Inverse folding.
């Protein structure tokens, strides 16, 4: 395990934010990005590109149509409408270009790491030959020594080395990579800092981790996700409905004696079709992936990110994820009438020189609870430490004729009282450590018992409560016996646990959940996790893990932080919510646009319809132009929201819906009334319109 | 008793009667469509039709069944009208001209019952009884069958079988429609509705047309058909002699669509799912009743075009119920309503006939709308959208979208062309915005398979006969195919379990969301057109 696992999620996030500096300026939207993305936005005017987005393609065609009319029959109004319709297309292009631009910057910094390394390939007879890294094939063995760049992705098959992976993880602390076990995977582009390893190449050049990561952040491989496709169908349907409504309006207008110009009808159409969401849809998707990359998670597909939002069950390994991974002293229980202070002092003394995590935790408890010193006095330093051996099953110290020992209960003569304490601790899922003073005749006097517990990381209970609020059930997976597992499960606040779990049990659990229609997410790092990672709907492999695990999962967490899954779920949900909220907003906007445009079109033939002009817009031209301008500007105004994502707070589905309907539904109805009215106040000043 | 109090009393009695019928009828219908046994009469029908009642069909086979049955029905009904002069009880009324015969055949097969003819001078009793009445039963049963197939799509999982169309059709007819219609025909006769094979009765030397009215009257309302045996429809004393028959007819046209929500709740295993749909239907129905009633009560000529026997409240109640279901029977002339009142009746149809809608069609239409609403809602809570344990993905959204698109498409294209045809001007009784309302109403009525007429528009020229016929057919069968495809893809899915993260669809939040979706979709689609018709009229 790397040091990362010993930190709380909060620490990781803080550390991570610091590390981001070298990658890309983070999630905050900078208006300057609009300018830098301008050339890309212009390139997207290509009709072949526009065809991908049915809603914006209609706007594009409409703009062209109006431009033709504006050229043949120019007036301030027609030209203004034509210009603002083109602006609508431009703003949509800009939204996408800004989102892509942020990915490009990341890709560039990654590409720098992708130096064309020269590989030292081992031929079959063990001779080294120097070949370009691009010539490597799967199965090749290469030698990498200190100071050299690893030429491709692979597994260490010989040796152990420290590797600087900061190029891809942003984590400056070097990590250890060794043959065998779960820390054998190395990534092309990272640098060996010490020692010599032999790496077996596992991916073809061009398909390496870094290559995939570049493609991903650049959006080159971006495919529409299932929900995005379904939403596009719905948006196309709305577009068709409005197209029909506007096209059919002309014969009705002719019948009523008020034929409308193509310009006015096009303006109405563009205002009605869901341009806001249409313009921002792909930016939302790109930004969602981008948010993942910013959190150092690499997803193989957008589909996996969406699936993360749907997760019903979360499998978490106990060790390292829910607990610190090491047992810690949590309580001293005095026995046989011993004074508690004396027990604590004995515990401290016996552990001062004990370098194991358990030993250190005992000293820490002495400091915390009993105000004893963590540092040995000069006198104490003279004591002789007796290390733990498999034979004695105890450790301790000999000092000034005193012998203090701590160890498993079986090594001491225990009274009924002590035995009762020992049994109780075992039942609670802890490990009892008996402390005794041994006198000269070799008889031991038991002072008390130290309780060693698997300590749940702080904040876990709250995180699981959050998950529960989202409707996600957490299952703790552990090799512990059911008794211990139950105690820890209760302490951590998980919903369920799987004790004495073997890899196949994990697999069976995933299958069982999936048969019930649930979506399962899990994290894993070992090769024996690979089948379960592949079976789960969202499998997050730790970057420290084996190549097999990384291949099997559909995401890789570069920070190797198992609690990251919670953030991934949040990003998945946020992605969908942002789409849904902006669609609602977009459609709700239409109400105000009807109130602006319909009276402008028809008050001339039915003066009574002017009663609908509740915004009191100055003239028909100013009303229509104001609606068109609002429709274009709202896209720019919402780019930051599209990139950042709608705020998500874990809560029940009903609470979320109520909140989003209120903000984006009701807000979507009210905002354009204010916006169009304000714009009209300016537009009416233009000669020829007001 | 003031008319308002009397009106409220009638509404009260109606609601109580519907509430009383809700559970028994809803539960009964659920049993009918999930019963494993067949009655002897049904087995005889299956033997004649060479149907294996225990074999289930895929959605496509089910759809072929619906389309094939309906196509054959149109042909038979067309031929029957074209040979009328050779049929008994035709009273020398001659054969029906091709355009009118086509329009009428499509109209009755699609459960629209739009009538471009004057029954007492055009249709003989044989066509009425053998042709039109039979379609009144089976077209309603087709609607029931499609609705049940869609519900099965939600209930079943990982299967491609949706039931057997012929079995659903037969059961709907024999076990539900026939018995209820029979009982109420007797009741109506007892209350004064006529039933005669003569062509008319002589009263003081004057012949008043008569027909076997009662037997058709019951199914006309019960099957949300609406085609009158006599031209004046339920405004005629022979069809609707008293306040009591008036109330019974309103009850009949509402009872199945309303009770089907209970059937739905039973079949999906959660009655609350049905109640919530009922509440949405009820809220919109009540709101629209208020609007129409208030508009009529405040009109300048409140009783013009209305039966004095019924007065304003009972006329508004009937108008709201007949347009809120896809019935189309009338007890007053909607053309004579105020701009807002007539617009309200039109809006009821433009909602897509789901408040509570026609027999079967109301249920499947509101479920399609619920799918669209839940799709957006699902996104807004950050999960792949789902409804009743089924995910709403590309296929489901596409099918729902096609189903919803069909009606506005045919309506707007048809009405748009009609508005600029020179021949239309001659067909209209009124110029200006009211004339446009008449055109819109006709196409709204046809495209939504309602069948009520604004009157005031002569629809016998070839354009209207053909285009309205096409609107009726596409407005009926495109959604049916889409709904069955939807049912097919839902049934093929796994069942998604209800977890704490599932958005509940039984509470007021879902009800308001669905209500909002119904109103918003209709408003956004039709406001431009309505602005030049009823809105302009109402604001004048």
């Amino acid at each position: 395990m790397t040091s990362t696992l010993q930190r709380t999620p909060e620490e990781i996030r803080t550390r991570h934010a610091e590390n981001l500096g070298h990658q890309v300026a983070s999630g905050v939207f900078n208006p300057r990005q609009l300018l830098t993305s301008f050339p890309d936005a212009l390139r997207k005017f290509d009709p072949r590109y526009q065809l991908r987005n049915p809603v914006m393609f209609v706007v594009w065609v409409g703009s062209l149509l109006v431009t033709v009319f504006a050229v043949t029959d120019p007036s301030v109004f027609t030209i203004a409408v034509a210009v603002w319709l083109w602006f609508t297309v431009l703003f949509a292009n800009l939204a996408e270009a800004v989102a892509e631009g942020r990915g490009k910057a990341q890709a560039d910094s990654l590409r720098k790491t992708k130096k064309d390394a020269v590989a030292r390939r081992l031929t079959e007879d063990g001779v080294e030959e120097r070949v370009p890294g691009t010539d490597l094939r799967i199965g090749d063995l290469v030698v990498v020594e200190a100071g050299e760049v690893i030429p491709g992705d692979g597994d260490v098959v010989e040796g152990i080395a420290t590797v600087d992976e900061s190029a891809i993880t942003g984590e400056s602390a070097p990590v250890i990579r060794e043959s065998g076990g779960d820390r054998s995977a190395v990534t092309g582009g990272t640098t060996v800092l010490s020692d010599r390893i032999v790496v077996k190449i596992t991916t073809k050049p061009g398909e390496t981790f870094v290559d995939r990561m570049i493609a991903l952040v650049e959006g080159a491989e971006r495919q529409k996700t299932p929900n995005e496709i379904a939403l596009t169908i719905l948006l196309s349907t709305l577009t068709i409905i409005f197209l029909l409504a506007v096209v059919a309006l002309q014969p009705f207008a002719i019948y009523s004696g008020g034929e409308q110009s193509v310009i006015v009808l096009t303006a109405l159409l563009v205002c009605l079709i869901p341009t806001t969401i249409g313009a921002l849809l792909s930016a939302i998707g790109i930004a969602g992936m981008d948010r993942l990359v910013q959190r150092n998670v690499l997803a193989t597909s957008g589909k996996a990110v969406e699936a993360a939002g749907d997760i019903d069950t979360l499998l978490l390994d106990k060790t390292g994820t829910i607990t610190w991974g090491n047992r810690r002293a949590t309580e001293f229980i005095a026995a046989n009438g011993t004074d508690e202070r004396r027990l604590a002092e004995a515990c401290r003394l016996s552990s001062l020189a004990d370098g194991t995590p358990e030993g250190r935790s005992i000293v820490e408890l002495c400091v915390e609870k009993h105000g004893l010193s963590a540092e040995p006095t000069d006198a104490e330093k003279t004591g002789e430490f007796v290390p733990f051996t498999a034979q004695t099953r105890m450790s301790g110290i000999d000092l000034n004729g005193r012998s203090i020992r701590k160890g498993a209960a079986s090594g001491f003569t225990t009274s009924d009282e002590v035995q009762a304490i020992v049994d109780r601790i075992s039942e609670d899922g802890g490990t009892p450590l008996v402390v005794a003073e041994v006198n000269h005749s070799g008889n031991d006097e038991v002072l008390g018992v130290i309780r060693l517990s698997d300590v749940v990381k702080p904040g876990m209970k709250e995180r699981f409560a959050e998950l529960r609020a989202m409707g996600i059930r957490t299952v703790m997976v552990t090799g512990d016996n059911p008794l211990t597992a139950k105690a820890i499960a209760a302490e951590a606040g998980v919903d369920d646990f799987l004790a004495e779990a073997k890899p196949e049990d994990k697999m069976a659990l995933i299958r069982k959940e999936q048969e019930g229609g649930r979506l399962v997410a899990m994290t894993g790092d070992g090769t024996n996790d690979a089948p379960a990672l592949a079976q789960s709907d969202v499998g997050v492999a730790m970057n420290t893990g084996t190549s097999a695990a990384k291949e099997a999962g559909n995401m890789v967490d570069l920070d190797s932080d198992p609690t990251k899954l919670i953030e991934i779920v949040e990003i998945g949900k946020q992605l969908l919510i942002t789409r849904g909220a902006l669609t609602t907003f977009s459609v709700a906007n239409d109400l105000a646009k009807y109130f602006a445009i319909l009276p402008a079109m028809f008050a001339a033939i039915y003066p009574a319809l002017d009663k609908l002009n509740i915004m009191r817009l100055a003239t028909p031209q100013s009303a229509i132009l104001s609606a068109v301008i609002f429709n274009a500007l709202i896209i720019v105004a919402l780019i930051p929201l599209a990139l950042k994502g709608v705020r998500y707070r874990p809560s029940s589905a009903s609470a979320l819906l109520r909140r989003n309907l209120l903000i984006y539904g009701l807000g979507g109805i009210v905002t354009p009334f204010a916006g169009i009215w304000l714009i009209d106040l300016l537009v009416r000043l233009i000669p020829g319109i007001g | 008793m003031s008319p308002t109090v009397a009106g409220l009393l009638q509404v009260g009695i109606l609601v109580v009667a519907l509430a009383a019928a809700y559970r028994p009828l809803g539960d009964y219908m659920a049993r009918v469509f999930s019963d494993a046994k067949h009655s002897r009469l049904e087995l005889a029908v299956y033997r004649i039709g060479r149907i294996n009642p225990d074999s289930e069909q895929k959605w496509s086979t089910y759809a072929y069944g619906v389309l094939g049955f309906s196509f054959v029905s149109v042909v038979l009904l067309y031929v029957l009208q074209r040979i009328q002069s050779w049929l008994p009880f035709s009273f020398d009324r001659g054969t029906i001209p091709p355009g009118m015969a086509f329009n009428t055949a499509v109209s009755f097969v699609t459960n629209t019952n739009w009538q471009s003819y004057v029954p007492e001078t055009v249709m003989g009793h044989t066509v009425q009884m053998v042709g039109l009445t039979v379609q009144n039963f089976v077209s309603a049963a087709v609607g029931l069958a499609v609705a049940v197939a869609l519900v099965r799509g939600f209930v079943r999982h990982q299967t491609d079988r949706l039931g057997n169309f012929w079995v659903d059709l037969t059961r709907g007819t024999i076990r539900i429609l026939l018995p209820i219609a029979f009982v109420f025909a007797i009741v109506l006769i007892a209350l004064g509705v006529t039933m005669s094979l003569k062509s008319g009765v002589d009263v003081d030397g004057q012949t008043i047309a008569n027909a076997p009215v009662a037997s058709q009257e019951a199914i006309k309302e019960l099957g949300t058909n609406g085609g009158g045996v006599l031209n004046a429809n339920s405004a005629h004393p022979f069809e609707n002699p008293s306040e009591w028959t008036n109330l019974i007819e309103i009850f009949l046209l509402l009872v199945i669509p309303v009770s089907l929500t209970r059937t739905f709740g039973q079949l999906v295993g959660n009655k609350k799912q049905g109640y919530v749909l009922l509440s949405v239907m009820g809220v919109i129905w009540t709101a629209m009743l208020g609007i129409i009633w208030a508009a009529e009560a405040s009109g300048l000529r409140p009783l013009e075009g209305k039966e004095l026997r019924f007065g304003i409240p009972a006329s508004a109640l009937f108008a709201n119920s007949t347009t809120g279901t896809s019935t189309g029977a009338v007890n007053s002339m909607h053309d004579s309503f105020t701009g807002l009142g007539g617009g309200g009746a039109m809006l009821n149809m433009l909602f897509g006939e789901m408040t509570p809608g026609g027999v079967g069609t109301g249920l499947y239409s509101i479920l399609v709308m619920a799918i669209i609403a839940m799709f957006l809602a699902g996104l807004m809570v950050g999960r792949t959208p789902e409804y009743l344990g089924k995910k709403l993905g590309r296929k489901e959204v596409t099918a729902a979208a096609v189903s919803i698109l069909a009606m506005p498409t045919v309506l707007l294209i048809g009405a748009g062309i009609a508005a600029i045809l020179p021949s239309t001007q001659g067909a209209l009784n009124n110029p200006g915005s009211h004339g446009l309302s008449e055109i819109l109403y006709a196409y709204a009525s046809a495209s939504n398979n309602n069948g009520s007429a604004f009157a005031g528009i002569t629809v016998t020229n070839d354009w209207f006969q053909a285009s309205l016929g096409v609107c009726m057919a596409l407005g009926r069968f495109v959604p049916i195919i889409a709904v069955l495809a939807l049912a097919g893809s839902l049934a093929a899915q796994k069942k998604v379990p209800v977890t704490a993260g599932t958005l509940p669809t039984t509470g007021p939040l879902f009800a308001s969301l669905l209500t909002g979706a119904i109103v918003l979709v209709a408003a956004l689609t039709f406001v431009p057109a309505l602005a030049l018709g009823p809105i302009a009229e109402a604001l004048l």
Summary: The CA atoms of residues 150 and 236 of chain A lie 49 Å apart.
